[in-house]
Amino acid sequence: KVFSLLEQQVRNVEKHFQPRTYFLSHDEIRVAGWCGSCRREGRSAGELLAENMRRCVEVIRSVNPKAELCVWSDMFDPHHNARSGFYLVNGDLAGSWEGLPPEMTLINWNHGAAAKSLPFFAERGHRQVLSGFYDGDPKSIGRWLETGRGLSGIEGAMYTTWRNDFTQLEAFAEAAWGAP
What we know:
Blueprint: H1 2-17, E1 21-24, E2 31-32, H2 36-39, H3 45-63, E3 68-72, E4 88-89, E5 105-108, H4 114-123, E6 128-133, H5 140-148, E7 154-160, H6 169-177
Parallel strand pairs: 1-3, 2-4, 3-5, 5-6, 6-7
Helix pairs in contact: 1-3, 5-6
């Protein structure tokens, strides 16, 4: 039923907005793999998440085959949340990245392990947008972009704020792309 509802929603979005890109929200999943239906087949939390991503992509593609796709990186990054022992996830989220189609763009917010995270997705052939700031030092995006220098698929950076604070946008842009 979930995927039937998802298809209805995608059709409504297409009808009213005709988006070029869909941003899937598989992000910070704190609880998974506990119900009988999840455990019945003996698949890991990572395998279940990979299958969910495949099905979501399939639904979007059935409605708009040309749509670009992007998703937050954390639940598909073994150097971030795609691991064992993540919050209240029953089991291991490893392998979740197997559900990502090659054309999926990752909105990567793992600045803490950028030296491992960025190459992981680059080697898989994914494009990446670095999601920086988070109400901290706006200049840190420069260091993060430097970490990704030479890797294929680093497409840019995105200013991200939790507090609706856009006062640092200019400093962020200058650190990312140089003086205006």
